[in-house]
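Work package 3, deliverable 3.1, input record:
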Amino acid sequence: MNSEALKGIRICDFTGQLAGAGATKWLASFGAEVIRIEDPIRQGRWDILRGNEPFKDERRGINLGGAFNNHNTDKLGITLNLKTEKGKQLLTELIKKSHAVTENFAAGVLDKLGFGYESLKKIKSDIVYVSNCGFGHKGPYSHFKTWGPIVQAVSGLTFTSGLSDQPPAGWGYSYMDHTGGYYMAMAILAALLHRQNSGEGQWVDMACTEVAVALNGPSLLDWTANGNPTRTPEGINSNRSQYLQMSPHGIYPTKGDDEWIAISCRDDEDWNALADVIQQTWTSKYRSLSERIENQDALDQDLSCWTQSQNKFELQSLIRSIEVPVSAVHKPQDRIETDSSTENFHLWPTVTHSEIGEVRVDGNPVHFSESDWQMNSGAPCLGEDNEKVFIELLGLSKEDLITLKREQVI
Amino acid sequence: MSVLEGIRIVELAHERVSWAGKLLGDMGADVILIEPEEGTASREYPPFLDGQPGENRSLYFWHYNTSKRSVLLNLEQNSWEFKKLIETADILIEGEPTHRLSDLKLDYPELSKLNRKLIHIAITPYGRKNPLSNAPATDLTIMAAGGPPWSCGYDDHNLPPVRGWGNQSYHTACHFATMSALTALLYRGRTGIGQFIDISMTAALNVTTEAASYSWLVNKSTVQRQTGRHAAVNPTGETQIQCADGKWANTGVPPRFPEEFRKLHTWIIDLGLEDQFPESVFLEMGANWEGQFDLSQIGTDDTITAIFAAGREGLKLIAASIDAYDFFVGCQNVGLAVGIVNSPEEAFEDPHFRERGFHVEVEHEDIGRHITYPGAPFNLPKAPWSISKRPPLRGEHTQEVLKELDE
């Protein structure tokens, strides 16, 4: 049975990539009816993940993209050519039956298609409209374009991920596409809540870069209140503790190829417990916190010499047993196959995709006692739900659909 | 009226959950922060105002605790007050060890009897059912367990994987807590039913790693970290460029449309750099290309390969000649999604965010100062976001709230 949490809510969804699709994926998993609209002429390729790698097997095709499947579970998919009059009319009918319109195009794209907020409001006065773009619809950079890595660079998050004497390492994935999607979901939910309370709709203009800037955390206030910058001549080693003084605090090599372990000693007690396990004379050089902080490079080197002869999981068990914060640096296979905590949390549900078949996807890291999420179906194939939506919802006939297809409207 | 006006949230103070309380508080909820007598630990975290440690001077605490009221309650001794508070609450957010509340008979089974509509959100490293949640952990170790560092770092794998700063494991769990709270409120609005919500921090990170997880899930391939760009199964080209002022820029997707090649060529001419760039001829060819490029031909078709190489080299040449900010704005004006690698303070001071109203002045009347905070992550024009209160002093609202309970 589908989740009851958001039952009865219908989303007219133009989102794509991850920054938008991730938001409506959450809504769909909690039972909202998310109708994804794609351009039949370009085969929905505005979303670069559609038909792109990874692929489950040797087959290739517009419906077989693994990332696209991951981000679009349990959504309905229809095609609609918004450059045609009939396409615009059908969209208008769909909006009348929807509670929210969502998109993450570059600023102004939906408006140019004739469906900016002013038009949406005329079609349905209480419509919720949430747009998510890199710099928002207002402000001097509103015409600038972004991807996740650009959002991360501009906002400060790339800068604060790296090792000293090295260029920024940044985030090796689009952290801000994921997180932008989370905030977009919050914005949609908050606006729906306002609608539930007051009957009013509205336009929420979200700027993903703005979200990202706030995620720099307390260092922002250290700047605004104290004038202390994070850009300093010493540079940044972000494996070290950012605010509280903790040492050792880093990622150290273990036995094997590219195997690592994270260890953080919060205080003298943690360090003494670790030193007892290490049982080597060099540990006595670092008895006090100030000795450890002042000689962090040397300490890291000494500690690395000790860790690199050991197996990462055995070392993790050992350090865990003395109550010192530790974790193996998990590879994807470690997290998904070896670490039973993810499977036990039902984090990787298997969904059924009409063409790909059965495949595991990212689930939600939460469980609700009364209206928990479900992920059952894979992403829709291009136009997979045209009959369901145009016939069952909008009342068209099968013959109408044949005509619309011939006229390249759907 | 803010969207959560009239919603009361009880937050058991814990550094791992405070961001969720702040996000919901700034949306208008009445967030009551329950602290032990000595105050929550993060009140003593640096950085401090003017670099001086002291009570109510932690900028760390401030950042995460706007729009909250502080009440000192010892759950062991003041369970009556806590229960009274829960009777008036809509949401409880906590990050306690898995057995603490049940040992006190103050867990969801007991609390839901007092208040059927209560939404109880628990955030722990591995979820409420996993004893590993009680093992000591820091942002670093939670991040390593949850996946991000594996994908972050450098081409040189002798250098360790990198954990980015910012408490992102706390943030990510709190984002799911906030989404969960709003989802559960919508459900409750329709049905009147509250519920218990179990959030795992490591699970939250596990599903926030993009290709790292789904490459494995789809076909059991493993991404490898690369300098300043996406970890990938197959190595990809560099995207970070150092500019004339020493700052870095991320070039994102290099030029791939004729119009982009044309504008890039014009820019090189305008900067007087054409003499140094014999590859200009390929930019011209790119500019005059008929139709779309077949991107799959890069590396096999000599002409297409040379055109795309010229695009990348042209960007490098410009970057080496001008400052990162000018490179960023210049590229964007050409239509290329390029970003300057700002430090957090440079990002904050950028005129774009100022103009959007992202700088929010909060009065700290107790010390006679105004402090500038980051503003709304998103704003509902009909139900505005605001920092309704400066971060509370320790126990500032204990009497006020207890009095409300008596009324």
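Residues 5 and 371 of chain A are 5 Å apart (CA to CA).
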